[in-house]
Q: What sequence folds into this?
């Protein structure tokens, strides 16, 4: 039993987190932090540091799968990743001078807000007809004109951005999505915010980037997931280096979870092409609510 808990259970947890990561464009930190805090009995700072360490291989695996499947926008992912890499060390520094409860409280608040926002948008969306759903496009063709048109139309109705900043151009079904310089600049700004949160609470930042990419840039959910993983892959690196130098990482636990999360992320990246966008939003929102509740219950002493 001890062997199972010490070595096999972390791998199984990693597989589940990897699947969620590949499907939802997150590094898995929103689950990893509560798992390391509750199941592994780590301190708050070690939970966030080990989570950040584990996120890198998970996001790399998922990002590679999304690039191959053409379910991401590489330029936007790189722009957001560069922005996040600049601020994640600042987030780590803030975490080292903050009490543990404050770190967990901020994580719960951010995750909870993102969950409510995502679920609200999912509820407002109409279920797609059987033949016109997101999965109705050809497999691997996430850049279809119909998908982009629906995303642009939804963004225009919401009034969330100005002219020229949300129109995603896809001249043909097989053409790559083209973004304006303004959209890429917005991507950098999104990365700056996500990087700070990533370093502070030990998450990849996908729970921030995915909703913002949907609302401010207007790309489809299926591309936001993969694009977010590219950014997570880049922005987590400086924070991990800093946490490693501070001695806050439990490498054994992180490696065991990563062993499971790497193949899990590949599976999740494949599933994203077969799941309707509305369902993805519900999965993402529900997943975030569970993570936020776990953190709150732990820090208030309800569960220990």
A:
């Amino acid at each position: 039993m001890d062997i199972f808990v010490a070595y096999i259970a972390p791998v199984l947890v990693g597989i589940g987190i990897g699947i969620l990561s590949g499907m939802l464009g997150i590094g898995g930190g929103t689950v990893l932090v509560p798992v390391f805090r509750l199941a592994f009995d780590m301190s708050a700072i070690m939970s966030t540091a080990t989570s950040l360490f584990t996120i890198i291989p998970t996001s790399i695996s998922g990002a590679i799968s999304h690039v191959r499947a053409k379910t991401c926008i590489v330029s936007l992912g790189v722009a957001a990743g560069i922005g996040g890499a600049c601020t994640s060390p600042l987030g780590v520094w803030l975490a080292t001078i903050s009490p543990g409860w404050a770190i967990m409280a901020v994580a719960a608040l951010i995750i909870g807000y993102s969950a409510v926002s995502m679920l609200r948008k999912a509820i407002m969306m109409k279920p797609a007809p059987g033949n016109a759903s997101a999965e109705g496009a050809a497999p691997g063709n996430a850049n279809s004109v119909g998908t982009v048109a629906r995303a642009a139309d939804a963004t225009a109705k919401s009034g969330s951005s100005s002219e020229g900043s949300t129109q995603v151009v896809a001249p043909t079904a097989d053409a790559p999505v083209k973004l304006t310089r303004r959209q890429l600049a917005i991507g950098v700004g999104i990365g700056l915010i996500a990087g700070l949160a990533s370093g502070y609470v030990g998450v990849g930042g996908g729970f921030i980037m995915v909703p913002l990419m949907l609302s401010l840039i207007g790309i489809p959910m299926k591309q936001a997931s993969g694009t977010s993983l590219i950014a997570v892959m880049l922005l987590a690196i400086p924070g991990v280096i800093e946490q490693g130098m501070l001695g806050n990482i439990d490498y054994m636990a992180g490696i065991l979870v990563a062993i499971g999360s790497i193949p899990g992320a590949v599976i999740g990246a494949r599933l994203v092409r077969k799941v309707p966008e509305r369902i993805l939003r519900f999965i993402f929102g529900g997943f975030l609510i569970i993570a936020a509740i776990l953190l709150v219950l732990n820090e208030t002493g309800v569960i220990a």
Summary: DSSP finds eleven helices and no strands in the chain. Residues 44-69 form the longest helix (26 residues).
